[in-house]
Amino acid sequence: MSDRRKFLIDDNPFVDVAACLFLEDIADKQGASGMNNYLVSLATSLAKSMPEEEYRTWDQFLDSLVKGESIISAFEDVITITPHCAVTTKCPFTKGWQEYTKRIGTFSKIHADVAEYYNSVYKPGAINSMCIIHQTFRNAAADRIKVAGKPLKIGQIAAVWEDGTRKIAPEEWMPILLEKAQISRTDLNMILRNNADVWVMYTE
Amino acid sequence: MLDVALVSLIQDMSEKAGVEGTIQYWARVGESLAKRMGKEAYMGWPSFNVALREGRTAFSIEGSVTALTDLAITDVDGDVVGYIYALETCVFNPTIVRIRYSVGELPRADSAVAEEYNNSVRDTAVCNFCVIHQRFREEVAKNISIADQSLDCIQLANRGFSGETKITEDALKKIGINPEYVRSLLRNYACVYAIMMRGARLKGESEEE
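Structure tokens for the assembled complex are given below, as produced in the milestone run.
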């Protein structure tokens, strides 16, 4: 990854830690659902503020995705394992989380609680609050992208947090997701050893 | 990513809650961060300055901060009651660049928030991010004691992303530092502030009386 690209996807630990604490304050007043609503609107608003994209072919889209030119990979380093399986190599919130554990202490339990709420109400794929922002952003960004005239669709397969916690899509969804991603379960386990997120991309 | 997301909310928030609402929001974020970072106690200025150099104090979360130990602040009795500190790079500079390459431009509310802050709170902001920074430092200072005395943080000067500067001459007069000297510091640093003993009687203040 070039220095410029690294600079662009690096997070701002000062803001990340401040925002995490602010989110905890919101949760104190409004509970996990209030925090979840805030996270979802934050990520959706970000995606909506970014320009729409159109690609003539799937290859053109993949090229833009891997180079970090697409809005969907603006904040993360993405590689592709197959033409439909994308992998985020490192969670964009790692630096902020590390700074939090260094300066504040253990990551507050509310960040995992809100993910449970999200998983039960929206889609089961989040480990903590950061995954909610990340996954919501990705879905909202996909809504702004068309490939060969068709809207891009995204499906979360699995995520791994810095401490090794994993969240894999429900068992009954796995055959369809793996088939669309063109990977096997063994492939998935291999990918999860040293990456942060696995997701499938397709058009209908 | 989170930084860019928060900034993308500013325009919306300013339209709904007014720029005053955004100022309150940023101030709460800065205050909450400072409060949660906990208390610190140091035996004297040397141990505080070493902690700062090693990145152990709450102030260090903003990045590389230099203690300008040649610029000691003295009280009416000539005792050292503080120093001037300089932040090398504004922590929001990378965020501004990331916004340029992802969203396109800073929301219009950025300058509106800074302007409102300068008119209604104090004339020290070059952009909307100064609100969070400056409130954060004020709160952090309250949580740190040196020789059992709590601290105050006073904003002295800052330089924005596109070169605009703010120099608070009143504050500099109180601590007896020439504004032109501070202006020259802004060539190398993004933000200059004083950390000193709370309630110290400064030479500049006694001259005013």
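The first strand of chain B starts at residue 40 and ends at 42. DSSP finds eight helices and seven strands in chain B. Further analysis is deferred to the final report.
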